[in-house]
C-alpha cells in the first residue's frame, strides 16, 4: 500500500491530532500563541498542500485544561416527568393553632418509670408533657417568650392540678425551653395536630 492511499483514507481530525503531537514533540515552542501549523484540508488528504493559509492549533496543555473544564461543568440529570425537584420546595412551617399562654413546670425525677394517665411509662428523657384537657398523642409547641426557645412535646399524661400551672413538661423538654433553673416559667402553647 503506498503512502498516498493511506493519507487519503485518514480523516482530517486524525491529521490534526498528529500535527499536534508533532508540535508537542519539539516542532514548536510549546506555546499555542507562538505556534501556527498548517492544518490538513481535503486537498492535503490527496497529497497536495492547501493554499488556505495558517490555522491556529492549541497546545497540548490548553487541550488538557479544556478537557478538564468539561468535567467541572455541572450536568443537570434527566428527570422523569413525575419527578419533583426537592431543592425548590419550601419547608412547611407548622404554625399550629394558638392555645394561649400559661405557666409550665416540669416533672421531678421521682416520677421516672411511673405509669402516666395514658398508660405509658414516664421518662424524663423523652419530649412529653401533661395537660388537663388535650387528647393523648396531641403535639404541642411550647415556646419560652423570654428566650425564644421552643420544643414540640407529645401529651401523654393529665395534669398539672395545682399551683396555677398550665402544662407539666418532661425535664428534657424543660431544658430545651430553658425553665429548669427557675423550676417554672411563662410559655406560649400552640396545638400542631
Outline:
This protein is α+β, with helices and mostly antiparallel strands. The chain has helices at residues 3-8, 12-27, 60-72, 171-177, and strands at 36-37, 55-56, 97-106, 128-130, 139-143, 150-157, 167-169, 184-191. The strands form 2 sheets. The chain has a 6-stranded mixed barrel. A two-stranded antiparallel sheet has the order 1-2.
The sequence of SSEs as H and E is HHEEHEEEEEHE
Straight-line distance between termini: 86 Å
Mean pLDDT: 77
Question: Which shape, going by the Cα principal axes?
Answer: rod-shaped
Number of domains: 2
Q: Do you know the CATH topology of the largest domain?
A: Barwin-like endoglucanases
State the helical fraction.
10-25%
Largest sheet: 6 strands, mixed, barrel
Determine the CATH superfamily of the largest domain.
RlpA-like domain
Low-confidence stretches: 41-48
Rg (C-alpha, Å):
38 Å
Strand order of the largest sheet: 3-7-4-6-5-8
What would you say the CATH architecture of the largest domain is?
A: Beta Barrel
CATH class of the largest domain: Mainly Beta
Count of DSSP strands: 8
Tally of contiguous helical segments: 4
**Given the helix and strand composition, which structural class is it?**
alpha+beta
Keywords: Cell wall biogenesis/degradation, Lyase, Signal
Protein name: Endolytic peptidoglycan transglycosylase RlpA
Enzyme class: lyase
Family: Belongs to the RlpA family.
Structure notes:
- It is a single chain.
- 22% of the residues lie in helices and 21% in strands.
- It is α+β, with helices and mostly antiparallel strands and 193 residues long.
- The strands form 2 sheets. The protein has a 6-stranded mixed beta barrel. Strands 1-2 form a two-stranded antiparallel sheet.
- A hairpin with a 6-residue loop joins strand 5 (139-143) and strand 6 (150-157).
- The chain has 4 helices and 8 strands; from the N terminus they run ααββαβββββαβ.
- It has 2 domains: 3-72, no CATH class; 97-191, RlpA-like domain (Barwin-like endoglucanases, Beta Barrel).
- The longest helix is centred in the first third of the chain and has 16 residues, at 12-27.
- Belongs to the RlpA family.
- Residues 102-188 form the RlpA-like protein double-psi beta-barrel domain.
- Residues 1-32 form the signal peptide.
